[in-house]
Amino acid sequence: MKPTEQRKAYLVLTLVGFLETLAFSIVHPVLPLYVESFGVSYEKVGLLFSAYSLTWAALQVYTGYLADRFGRKRVALIGFALYSIFALLNYTARSFTQLFLFRILQGVGLGLLGPSVLGLVAGFGEKGKSFAFYRAANGAGDVLGPMIGGLIGNYSLRQPFLLSAFATFLAGVTLLGTKEVKAAESKVRF
Questions:
Q1: Quick check: helix, strand or coil at residue 44?
Q2: How many whole angstroms separate alpha carbon 136 and alpha carbon 21?
Q3: In angstroms, rounded to a whole number, what is the distance separating the alpha carbons of residues 92 and 129?
Q4: Structure pTM?
Q5: How far apart are CA 172 and CA 190, in angstroms?
Q6: Residues 180, 95: contact at Cβ < 8 Å?
């Protein structure tokens, strides 16, 4: 890879890492308040968080196989699209049931994109350097996301979901600028 191509690849990697984590963390300060605005108990607030996490965590086990089989970039783009769509639908939720369903489906998006993006990062020749750039960008998104979400949440509890959808969409568009190194064909099924 030429030096200019390599710089572009690291820039894309850094932007994707920043935008995806910004999108995930921007709703953290307002999500409990948003859920409570539907008049539900603290147990249901906890259930919402657990259902979302269980969805993406369980799906990741199978996603690595799907990403290697069908292409990491393709599976990651599907994940970004799903996450973005359901972040936007969270913004429009009018009941706890809607929010619960949209958040679980948003977890499907995260479950698809997580291992896929990590697979793309691992495809770089300098693995340590690529993970360092990616994780540093994740950290920056994780620092700025809750601050921005809290600030925006002062005006409306729904607005961080809108910004989450937009940041996820931008991360997916940015991902289009990556070149994928194909995984070796596995003879073993999942």
A1: helix
A2: 11
A3: 40
A4: 0.90
A5: 27
A6: no
